[in-house]
Amino acid sequence: MTDLSHIRNFSIVAHIDHGKSTLADRLIQMTDTVAERDMKEQMLDAMDIERERGITIKANTVRIDYTAVDGEQYVLNLIDTPGHVDFAYEVSRSMRAVEGSLLVVDSTQGVEAQTLANVYQAIDANHEIVPVLNKIDLPATDCDRVAEQIEDVIGIDASDAIRVSAKTGVGIRETLEAIIHRLPAPTGDRDAPLKAMLVDSWYDAYLGVVVLVRIMDGVLKKGDRVRMMQNGSVHHVDRIGVFRPAMTVVDQLGPGEIGFLTASIKQVRDTKVGDTITHEKRGTDKPLPGFKPSVPVVFCGLFPVDNAEFEDLRDAIEKLALNDASFSYEMETSAALGFGFRCGFLGLLHLEVIRDRIEREYDIDLITTAPSVIYHIYGRDGEVTELHNPADMPDPSTIDHIEEPRIKATILVPDDFLGDVLKLCQDRRGIQMDLTYAGSRAMVVYDLPLNEVVFDFYDRLKSVTKGYASFDYQLLGYRTDNLVKMQVLVNDEPVDALSTMVHRDRAEQRGRAMCEKLKDLIPRHMFKIPIQAAIGGKVIARETLAALRKDVTAKCYGGDVTRKKKLLEKQKAGKKKMRQFGKVEIPQQAFISALKMDS
Amino acid sequence: MIEDWQNAGFAIYIHWPFCEAKCPYCDFNSHVSQFIDQSRWRRAYLSEIDRLGREFPGRTLSTVFFGGGTPSLMDPDTVGHILERIRATWPISNNFEVTLEANPSSSEVGRFRALRDAGVNRLSLGVQALHDDDLRRLGRLHDVEAALRAISISQQTFPRSSFDLIYGRQGQTLSAWKSELDRALDMAAGHLSLYELTIEPGTMFAKRKAAGKLNGLPDEDLAIALFEETGARTAKAGIENYEVSNYAADGNACEHNLIYWRYGDFAGIGPGAHGRLTVNGLKRATTEPKAPIPWLKSVENGAGEALIEDLGPEDQADEYLMMSLRLTEGMDLDRYHAIAGKSVSQSEIARLEELGLLQSGENGLRITTKGRPLTDAIVSSLIAAG
């Protein structure tokens, strides 16, 4: 156990590609935390998808032992957090677990939206923030301009920002010294009852559920009996340790320390991020503030492209759910798609991550149906039902009215882009609640329907503001609106996986956009294909996909047989990624791409 | 019982990998080299013929084809030795066909007589265009005048002769192609190969196209119009479309290429040459080393083959379908069944017939004139449904 004055806990705030992971790698390397031979790029990002997308979904942590220039021994704990609005709550908990942040900004690029969203989380958590200007080895580096921008846009002092090249190692020592001298030590009382914050948890095939904790007060020891304050469940702690970044067992964790515990917990579902862990006996009765249960807000169907893979899909979903409490699922059947699952997610990124993991880790090709929110259907008979799936929409004549969830969205944006943001919000049926300025930045608050946001709002926002907007939202409640179910017919056959709930006034526009999109997404066939959007029996939009007219190899002689055959085999494999609807083959990615709106 | 290949016959392909210059549209296995040891190459070809003679004795050989590269750059004496050895190894059919590919440049035309005396009885000339600017753009070393002279001399020299043209060239209009094609049909001696320009990956043209520097290629409408016009004009001249890009008067089709499309057996000799040879009832796919020197070394070590793969019944049947549907005469469904042990999907045939793209009857299946521009899509959907 380390004395509080010699502990520093921090996170790194950065935009994708600004060098967060490389900087973390260098800190780990310079302090000899990992033997040189075990070092690999981006130590902290364990999963492939994260590595490829450059995002970190689960909180990762590493404990670094550092001998300062003055000869003192310090323990540094780095928590690396996800950086997306879907995981805003998880980020807020990680931020509460540390006292300071390094704000890493690419000195060739400057501040970007994701940086803003997370740096405000850090400011909210009362962090001390040390700006780090990275990539000073590149010719395009412009530290003075970027430092000025940090002061203007974020409003923190950047005069003593550290200039670093995580790639070459320049400035790493200075960064370590700044962590010690500029970030505060944690506080806590080792004699008080145990108060540990559950920062994150995940499933490990050998250890069961691993719980990442930050000790606020008291001391956690192996063999302790602890209680999760949210559900009151009691567990026997069979192992505690720290990450270096490999799991390393220790005897105890004291105030200010970050580490893990295992307690033969079977399901991640039993561990809630933000919960307070205390001792069964002589425990605290005051949980840490800020706990929120995680509730799925976006629903969609996941179906195997190949029906025969349904059982494999069930297996994959069950395994993933063990490790992700915020992901819900139940079986679903569709006339066109067969057996699958209706799944609930925190947001669209969460959806994409789960879908990609199923495809990659379990090698199952999936069709993802139109994402939906939960609607409240008020029947004429007075009964209220929850609608998770437009395909289940009852006969409109039996419906009295429909309510949809609304959110309060807060958007921070440089005023240059304000017009575009206002237009986007109006286009998505938003009602402006507030508009204020802070320097050259505007803060806009909108009341928006959740179904207009869940799909591609965040992508659109990033795109219209060149990445300079930050976005956060909270649920406001349910409100009645004129909502209808829009069906899509391909070659005169309804494709229920493409059914969506839309506002009546927007239906024509959405229908047209979808038909146009599908026209581009469905490959041409040897016959022409009508693509229609309809409400009830009424067609509101129509496109025609022209027939394929030419597809022939000019030269094919004896020497070309093998090559040509290989091409055919590739096409055959490509067809496996398509789903047959009547006579038409629709590629799996069409189901989600068709719903993205470009304007 | 006869083996499947006997429905089509047995052929030998000889690949000569060298050219004077590399054309920007060509993705064939060709190399430009200053010094070629003709006698070493001759020994290698003869050694491969001997090996194949031992492995496949007693078959009646229908055709030989010298391709490349530019085989008209071969020493006519080498061609003579090769043909002599072939005749000594296998019995040959009554109408034995020996084709050689040539360019219209004067140096090559000068060898025509010697090549005929060596045993070549059919010449295939790579004319490509009857338009000087286009010939330059295609990277050809000859002009129209040389091409016309070469056509005339080849027709005087060889019993049978054909030439190639490429259409769908940069900036080529439908009317320009019509008159160029009419001019070609006037000169044709019963056979033409008319190819739509294809931008093959890895070629100079592909690089230029990727860089946005290959302008004026036809759009889909023009490409269809060019193809249809080609079919109409050739038919009127009595030179009928018998394969996607090949046109012939009655009895003038290239027998060698028909063996490929009818899925017979063929041995491929030379760098990168492919073969399909039936061994114990199974079709064997062979490939020789692609680069010239490794091929020579491999032959000198005993056998030119770099890769041998025995095809299963399904692969074999797919190849038969893919090749034979390129022909106007189409495929034999009984033959397919005998190879694959199953039938071509009846429902897929019916679907494509309904679209007017396919026609079946008398156990035959053929692509219609309407379906011809969709040959690959049709083949692909029949195979995927199988």
Spell out the key features of this protein:
A: 599 residues; Rossmann fold; Elongation Factor Tu (Ef-tu), domain 3; Alpha-Beta Plaits; 5 domains; 6-stranded mixed sheet; 14 helices; B: 386 residues; alpha/beta; TIM Barrel; 2 domains; 9-stranded mixed sheet; 15 helices; globular
What can be said about this structure in brief?
The complex is a heterodimer of chains A (599) and B (386). Chain A has 599 residues and is of the alpha+beta class.
How would you characterize the overall build of this protein?
The complex is a heterodimer of chains A (599) and B (386). By secondary structure, chain A is of the alpha+beta class. Chain A has 5 domains: 4-182, P-loop containing nucleotide triphosphate hydrolases (Rossmann fold, 3-Layer(aba) Sandwich); 195-279, Elongation Factor Tu (Ef-tu), domain 3, CATH 2.40.30.10; 298-371, Elongation Factor G (Translational Gtpase), domain 3 (Alpha-Beta Plaits); 395-481, Alpha-Beta Plaits (2-Layer Sandwich); 485-595, Alpha-Beta Plaits, CATH 3.30.70.2570. In chain A, the strands form 7 sheets. Chain A has an 8-stranded antiparallel β-sheet with strand order 11-10-16-7-8-15-12-13, with helices on one face. A 6-stranded mixed β-sheet of chain A has the order 2-3-1-4-5-6, with helices on both faces. In chain A, strands 21, 22, 23, 24, 25 and 26 form a 6-stranded antiparallel β-sheet that branches. The N and C termini of chain A lie far apart (56 Å). Helices cover 41% and strands 23% of the residues of chain B. Chain B has 15 helices and 17 strands. The two termini of chain B are 26 Å apart. Chains A and B meet through helix 13 of A and strand 1, helix 9, strand 12, helix 12 and helix 15 of B.
